[in-house]
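Below: protein 1.
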Amino acid sequence: MRDVILSSTGWVVERSKHVKIKEGNVSTLLDKYVDRLGKKHPEEKELFPFLQDNELAEWLFVVEILNHCFWPDPGKPRWEIEYKGKWYSGYWALEASLLRALQQYRMPVHKAEFLAGLNTEDLKNIFSGRGEIPLFKERLENLKEAGEILLERWEGSITNVIEEAGGSALKLVELLKDNFWSFKDEAKYLGNKVYFYKRAQIFPADLHAKLGGKSWGRFRDVNMLTAFADYKLPQVLRHLGIMEYDSYLAGKIDSFQFLTAGSEEEIEIRAATIQACELIRRKAQTEKGLQLTSLDVDQWLWSLGQENAFRRYPYHRTRTIYY
């Protein structure tokens, strides 16, 4: 699985028309930010003390089904959620909305039976707050699909899928993309298949982090996952001078024009993101002696992207269920 993702995205980068990786700038990046590299995910089980490990795995699966595309259209308010007196946006609003539904609304959002029978009004209630979450119809369809497939093939629980993976994060990714349509994150570039599997990969990675590598989060090959090709990482990589766009693509992104899902430009951005993270990982080892995983590099870049200092350029805008 890792080889398939890296080889297909590497093939794109070699032929890319609009996006280039500036290898020479990686050493400067490492010199400047090496003290912030290689920090591991903290154990997070304590954030969900009311959930048993199997319930947390089920709840997190629902999170990953919905973990995509939170930004608003230009001129529209961003989607925000109030939970326990605090307002959240983006990914944190997603977690808050599902925790609120579970704790305050008594909705068993982690159960396949609930997902399979989910209706529009219930989901509107779950996401109620300020603004509107994008791709509402697609989110509803994907949740219902997941519930139905779990009931049909895995006795209603994602833990049976995890068990079938046999402690392999890569096998779990394969099971997700082969059985759940919404996880089949693939594209075509110049007639060739390209594989990303962003949300399928982030599920075992988050399980591993939130469960401290234990229970349903114990995977022997979690370090074999690639970086997650989303819209925040390329924003940071561009700011750092590691990814460079030609004037045509830069103009589109900087003027907030949408990129079509599956377009050459979008595929090039995502492929370069994965390859740039691999380049950083390798150079961190050879130049700084750091034994990093792709997840370490991904988490580091994502955390930088939460700071205003790394938002000089806009992120690219593509309406998609995959990130």
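Below: protein 2.
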Amino acid sequence: MAILTTEDRSQESEVRQRKTSLYSVICALLSVICILSSAHAERIKDIATFSGIRENELIGYGLVVGLNGTGDKDGTYIFQPFANMLTRMGISVNAADIKGKTKNIAAVIVTAKLPTMVKPGSKVDVQVSSIGDAKSLQGGTLLMAPLRGPDGNVYAVAQGPVSIGGFLAGGAGAQAIKNHPNVGTVPNGAIVEKEVPVQLNDKNRLDLLLTVQDITTAKKTADRINMGLGGVFARAEGPSVVSIKVPDAYANRVVDLMSKIELINVDVDVPARVVINEKTGTIVIGDNVTISPIALAHGGLTIEIKVEYQVSQPPPLAPEKAATAVVPKIEMKAEEKKAPLVEVKGTTIGELVKALNVLGVTPKDLIAILQAIKTSGSLKAELVIM
């Protein structure tokens, strides 16, 4: 039997403290690694949707009344519908009698989106758009308008005050307009009358549709789902679809399974892409875009032409036929900007942006430069022109 002295016990306590400290450091490092590894991860619900869970388009025809003289002047779209509505209310009116007296009424197309499995009695937002020559829908009220689906059935009925989020005001020779007064919304203006039936808990298979098609992301999504479910249940069918077999543990509980899958994090692989909109001069450059070492030079030729008109009068004692004439004086100036040659040594998009800032290019010029870099083969990304 070994007898520990006070010194031995002190050394043993020190060793234990070192082990504990080392263990704490390792745990902290592992936590940091886990955080960093999931820093760029996104939830599946943010990058994909389940097949069958979607919005359904509804459309209908309606009348907006109560306008302050800004309704349809022609009235072609409202004569007969308005007369029919009054007849249903017990007021017999001839459509020809309404002609020229409908400046406070506007014909509109009513649209809405009906989510899946919304029960009757729920409310959804609707949008109204003028189809006539109405100047504004400001202050108007949408009368009862049935909204139909592609199958022709009525799924909702819309009615309520129209909000355009702007105004139309003016007088003789002056006018002020904010936003687009011919389109408005009716918040919670449609009451659902019929449900779009979808049975989720009876399914034995689910299809996950990726928002952005990418084979690598689809494969990673399937792998993460299998890890989360503890088995091989998911398989990537292509760049946009991941099929999932419902486990026996989730039979008749498919909604619970969908909720669990939506919260799984996936490292999304973003393709290298540069998007250019030449109409607006907008340029969006992705994070994975790289370039080969290049040298850039950019310059422009500016030509300015000025025309000044001078009066040429005849000299003293000139013949009577001599008259005053207007002589144009033309001045032309051509200037070519100096364009330094800038070398881009790095391969990141940051180096490219720094070089372009040195050149002082505008968005329009940057579009031409990016197209030239792509043509030279130095831009390692897909160039998308809108």
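Helices lie at 6-37, 44-47, 79-88, 95-98, 215-229, 254-262, 349-359, 363-376.
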